[in-house]
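Hi there,

I know you've been waiting on this one. I reran it after we fixed the sequence typo, so this is the corrected version. Both the input and the resulting structure follow.
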Amino acid sequence: MILPLSYYQQPDVVALARDMLGKYLFTRFDGQLTGGRIVETEAYAHIGDQACHSHLGRFTARTRIMYEAGGVTYAYLIYGRYTLFNIITNEAGKADAVLIRGLEPTHGIAEMQLRRGLTQVQRNLTGGPGLLTQALGISTRSYSTPLTGPEIWLEDRNEPVAADQVLASPRVGIDYAGDDAALPWRFRLHGSPWTSPAK
């Protein structure tokens, strides 16, 4: 089942980031279907989270999409090289987001290998936020794309993740966020070889 826009418009971004574990993320570009099971996420809240791009109502050309109703793509470039894929959540004006950090590849693996320039299926195919976007063909051109297809969508395939399968820990690379850097808002599927290598 393709997740409806109402799924993304729930108010608790931390609960949503946890709930997205086990859901499937798919893309279809130029007729090529690629995707897999989400195994790592991070939550970012517009209130009380200095790590969030919309903290204190920050509104720029890049962050404007964060203020739309949940269910659209926030894709931006880091280090001049990697695109990060974020899902905007909550209702319009409440700029929360979930970063997808790790994916277990299940569909279109050969195409993902081509995009990543890999000859073997290994963790660096999709085990990291900038790697999975390359594998899935997501770029900054995907900015503001709706998450109900036909290019990008999430599916619930009835594979719930039990509480004892989830690792909650601080997010990655946000030392600038002060005390908020310690918030345990990074969620990983315990034992998955497809989570990012960041500790």
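Quick highlight: The chain has four helices and eight strands.

Best,
R. S.
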